[in-house]
Design goal:
This protein is α/β, with parallel strands linked by helices. The protein is built from 15 helices and 19 strands. Helix 6 links the parallel strand 6 (about 130-135) and strand 7. Bound molecules: cytidine-5'-triphosphate. Cytidine-5'-triphosphate (CTP) binds near residues 114 and 115.
Length: about 450
């Protein structure tokens, strides 16, 4: 019996897939089809797959060509599958010519001519109109956003607004987009708005964008006031618009994996979460100059509070802050202490103090550690009582990581409600509430 294997995402199954499977089946007696998981696709940079794994498997099954369907979860699996299933022929489309030659030592490798003028990417683009993104703000993060957005199919960074028109024009020139002086025209052009302006302007811009019926992705901290966050989410809900806070950690695949393992009981019941993020900032930067909205906690607190909020929830019994301040009164180092009914958490942030920057989650049966930059989680370990009992996990984190939140935002705009769990409205409201308490404690109201 000649056994043939092929792999693919098979999103929005189309004629090209059908013909490939048909020809693959004709090459032998038994065809195995490997269908990729969403996680694997994300890890290899293929974002925005529309059909779920189950739908894609069902669609492959319906072609009637597959004798067996398996799931492809990781790189290197093809090599193992070929040996495991005793494969004679590996088949794939001609867009992969040469890439799988390394398998020739184990089986025959055939590249079949790709069907012209059809692809899942093309179909996705036809089904969902390109979202034109208007950017408010022209700082460092806005620059990173442009390069990351370019990697997500289905969106296009189109224009920029900044009341300082000179900055807007420079930014627009650098990236080949349009600068807008008139905010009404800016909103007219945008389908969704990315807000990366100074913290204190977020509320006003979000409100304006929602009132103009635009979806909004806003940099963290979205709001420094709980009532403001609640009001904005209410408005977004009423208008059926997507509003999310851009905390990249929440959307990165490695962090989702870490949470899944932490909350899945592997280390027992979780009793302590410690998250630390420090960075030595140039003393002339806004973060260390702005006496009302600058400092380590408003800048980095959202990252460090996220693990505790995701693990313990929002109902903490007590929170207090300790800060080291510079001569301007700006906190260069802050520790937030949270007490929950059955757990403790600390969030440690530094802009003028450098520390190790770890995430530590302790439970009744073991602990999880992720080293800096855990906020771009790509590696973590699970430890137990026996020091030799260490499980190691890794996940890719691509580029600056903004592509994950942009891609999830796009899925939400296209109606995928499932993506909301990564950073819920409740999470963002809780964060705003904590930042409000911190600001009050600093005498900044
Ligand atoms: N394929 C093909 N002809 C096409 C499209 C895909 O023969 N027009 C083949 C691919 O070469 C691969 C298999 O079908 O062997 C599964 O491809 P997949 O990546 O799922 O499909 P694409 O349409 O290429 O998807 P995307 O646009 O998301 O890359």
């Amino acid at each position: 019996m000649v056994k043939v294997i092929t792999y693919g995402t098979f999103d929005l199954l189309h004629e090209g897939h059908y013909k490939l499977l048909q020809r693959a089946k004709q090459l032998g007696d038994y065809l195995i089809v490997g269908v990729t998981t969403e996680e694997y696709d994300q890890a290899r940079g293929k974002l925005n797959v529309m059909d779920s794994l189950m739908t894609r498997i069902e669609n492959v099954k319906k072609t009637g060509f597959a004798d067996e369907i398996i799931v492809e979860e990781s790189q290197g699996q093809k090599f193992r599958d070929i040996q495991k299933y005793n494969i004679d022929i590996f088949v794939v489309g001609s867009d992969w010519t040469g890439i799988f030659d390394y398998l020739k030592d184990y089986c025959k490798v055939i590249y079949l001519e790709r069907t012209k003028n059809i692809s899942s990417t093309m179909l996705r683009a036809q089904m969902t109109p390109i979202q034109r993104i208007g950017i408010i703000g022209t700082g460092r993060i806005a620059n990173r956003f442009i390069t990351e957005a370019a990697l997500v199919s289905g969106v296009n960074a189109q224009g920029v607004y900044n009341p300082h028109t000179k900055s807007a024009k420079l930014f627009a020139h650098k990236w080949g987009i349009d600068a807008y002086e008139d905010i009404e025209k800016f909103f007219d052009m945008s389908d969704m708005v990315y807000i990366a302006s100074p913290h204190e302007t977020h509320y006003g811009y979000i409100k304006q964008a929602l009132e103009h019926d635009k979806h909004v992705l806003c940099e963290k901290p979205m709001c420094l006031n709980k009532a403001h966050a609640e009001e904005l989410f209410k408005l977004a809900k009423e208008k059926r618009l997507v509003l999310i806070e851009g905390i990249k950690t929440a959307y990165c695949p490695g962090f989702a994996k870490l949470l899944g393992i932490a909350c899945g009981g592997t280390i027992g019941s979780i009793r302590n979460v410690e998250a630390c993020f420090t960075k030595l900032e140039d003393e002339n930067n806004r973060e260390l100059k702005d006496v009302n909205y600058g400092g380590s906690f408003t800048e980095l607190g959202s990252y460090c509070l996220l693990p505790a909020l995701k693990i313990f929830g929002h109902a903490y019994e007590d929170i207090r802050f300790e800060s080291i301040k510079d001569e301007n009164g700006i906190d260069i180092f802050t520790k937030a202490y949270l007490r929950y009914p059955n757990g403790l958490a600390t969030a440690t942030c530094g802009l003028g103090v450098k520390s190790e920057g770890k995430l530590l989650i302790s439970g009744t049966r073991g602990y999880i550690t992720a080293d800096a930059p855990w906020w771009k989680t790509n590696y973590f370990e699970v430890h137990r009582e026996n020091p030799d009992d260490v499980e190691k996990f890794s996940e890719r984190f691509l580029g600056d990581g903004l592509r994950y939140e942009i891609s999830d935002m796009l899925s939400m705009i296209n109606g995928d409600k499932k993506k909301y769990f990564k950073l819920t409205r409740g999470d963002s409201v809780a964060l705003a509430g904590i930042l409000e308490k911190f600001q009050k404690g600093m005498g900044r109201t």
